[in-house]
Amino acid sequence: MSLSPLRLRAAVAAAAVAGLGCATLTALPAAAAGEQVKVQYRQSATGSDQAEPWFKVVNTGSNAVPLSQVKIRYYFKADAGASYRFACSWAVKGCANITGTFGTLTRSTADADRYLEIGFTAGAGSLAAGADTGDLQLRFHRTDWQAINQHDDYSFAASQTAYGDWSKVTAAVGGATVWGTAPAGNDPDPDPDPTDPTDPPGDGATLFDDFTYTSHTDPALNAHGWNVRSNSGGPGVPGAAWAPENVTFAREGANSVMNLETSTAGTAASTRQTEVLTRATKFKNGTYAARVRFSDAPRSGPDGDRLVQTFFTINDLKAPMADDYAEYDFEYLPNGGWGEPANILYTTSWETYRPDPWEAVNQHSEARTSYAGWHDLVVTIDNSAITYYVDGTLFGRHDARYLPERPMSINFNQWLIDLAGQTSTTPRAYDQKVDYVLHVKDQVLTPAQVSARVAAFRSAGTAFEDTVPGTG
Hints:
Strand content: 35-45%
Structural class: mainly beta
Helix content: under 10%
Distance between the termini: 24 Å
Number of helices: 2
Largest sheet: 9 strands, antiparallel
Radius of gyration: 24 Å
C-alpha cells in the first residue's frame, strides 16, 4: 500500500562521552578468579519522570566472559506503592539482547530498597579479555509515569556525567559477585523477586509460531490457522500471481525458517508474489513481534525491482474512508519506490484510506538506509499509542487517534510495486525470511521481554502455541 506524505517522527540516540574514574573492588570469589568484570556508569537524566542509568561492562580478567553469565544491579529507593518498568533506548550489543528485571532488597536502607538487575541473552555473545560492551543506554520509570526523585538513590550520582568506574553498582559472573558494593547488609542474591509487578505476566493469551513446517501443503500449517495466499488481486503488479509454492521452510542453524520468494522476469505474467496470513482476525491490543530477514538484492539476475517486504496487521476496509479500518506496517523497500530513489524502511499506522481517488489518513516513521539482514521487529498497541521498535531501538511512536477499533489478522508478504524499476526479462527472485512470530494479547512487552519470551518457548521445545481467543 502506498503512503501519503506525513511528518517524520524519528528517535535519535544521544552519543555518550567516555570518561575515567576510580572505585574499589570487593573481594574476588575464588569461583570467578579467571572471570572478572567491572562496571562503568554515567547518568543521562537527573530528574523528571525517568531514570536513565547508562553502563559499560569491562572485562578486566584474562578469559573471555559469556555475557549471558553477567548480571549487574543498580540500587534505588522506590516511591511508596510504586511499580516500575524497564526499557532499553540503545545498546551496542542490541537492545533485544538486554534484559531488565526489578527486585526487592532483603534489608532496606535509607537510600535503597529496590534494584534493577540487567542481564544479557545468549545473542549478546562473549566479552573478550580487555574489551567492553559499549554503551548500554537504559532507562526506567514508574508505571504511572509520575515524577521520580533519584537524589535519594544509592547508585545514582548527579555529577557522573561521563563514564567512570562505579562501585555502587554490583556485577556478578555466574552468580559470584566480582565488582562493587551493595547497600549495607545486602549481599546480592542469585535472582530477583519472581513476583515483582514490573515483570509481565507469563500467562497472557499468546500466539507463538516457530514456523516448523515441511512445506506450504503441510496439514499443520492449516491446522495452526495460517493461510498461504493463492487468490488474485492487489497489492502489487496487476495480473501477477500469488504463488503458494514459493513459500518454503528449511532449517537454518537451530531454528526452522519460513522463506517467501517473489520472482519476476519483467512481465506481469511471469511475476510470482507471496503472502502468508492468519485466517482469524482476532488480534488487537498488545505486543506483536517477528524476526525477519530483509534482502537488498535478488539471489541471481539483475537487481533494481521496486520490492516491498513486510510484517503487518490489518483488517478489511468496509467502505472508502471507513473509520474502523486499521493497519500497522513494517514495510522495507530495498530499491525504493513510491517516489523514493533508494532503500527505505517505513512503519505506518493507518486510520483509513480511499483507493480511488487516492486519499489516506495515516502516520509513518521512516529511515533511509539499508536493512538487509535479520532484524527484530516489535510493535506494541495499548490505549494511548502505537510504538514501533527495530532491533530493540525505538523507531517510531504514533498517536492514539490511529488505535484499532476492530481486531486484525497478522500478515507477511513480499510483492512488487510495479515493473518499472528493472525492465530486464532475465529471471530473478528475492527472498524474505521469517524466524518466528509472537503476539501477546493486551500486554505491552519491551523488546528484551519479547526475546526472553521467545527464548522460553524454544527452551521448552514449544514450536507453536495459540491461546488467543477468537475475538479481539
